[in-house]
Give the backbone structure.
Amino acid sequence: MRAFISILTFILTLPLLSYKHKVDKTKDLETERYLDFVAAVQNSSTFSYFTVITVKDLNTGETKEICTKGNFVIGALHKDLNIGYDAQGQQKVLDFAKSKKDRYFELKNKEALDNISFFDYNPDLVKKIQSKYDFDKVIDIIKNEKAFSIRLSNDEMKAFAHVLFNKGYLTGENDCFGGTLQYVDRTKSDD
C-alpha cells in the first residue's frame, strides 16, 4: 500500500515539478540577459557588445524594446542624467545602469534617445529577421562550436543581435572593422 501511495504521490506531483522547471528556465534566461547587459555596459573596447533594453520616450510616451551597443546606453545615460564623464560620473552612470535589472529606462533628452537610435530603430525588422534565418540552427552552432559570426547590414545586424540577446546569447561587433556580428562568450576572461 505504501508503494502505491508513493507512486500516486509521485505521479500527482510530476506536473508541479515540470512547471517549476519551466519557471526556473525563465528565471535563468532573465539572469543571463541581465549578466549579458552588464557585460555590454561595462565593456569599453572597440569590440562593442550588443544589448537589448526597453526605453520609454518621456516626451511622447512611446515605448520600444531596442537593441543597441552597451557603450551607447552609457552615453545616453550620461546625456539624460546630465552627469559628466570624469571617473566619479562614469561610476555613477554605470551603477545606475546596473541597478536596472529589468533593463527598462525612461529618457527625456532627445540627444540621449538619438544616441541609442531610439527614433530610427524598427522593431518590425526583428520579426522579419526571425523568419529569414533559422535561429535554432544558429544556437546549435554556438553551443557546439562556441563561435558564430555573420556579415550583415547595420540594421539587420541589430535585429539579429536582438533575437540572439533575447534567447540568452551575447554578440558584438568590432567598431574598427564593422559589418560582422560575432557571438561573445562573456564567461571567458580573454574576451
Residues 81 and 93 are 8 Å apart (CA to CA). DSSP finds seven helices and six strands in the chain. The chain has one domain: 2-184. The beta strands are 47-57, 63-69, 104-107, 149-151, 170-174, 180-184.
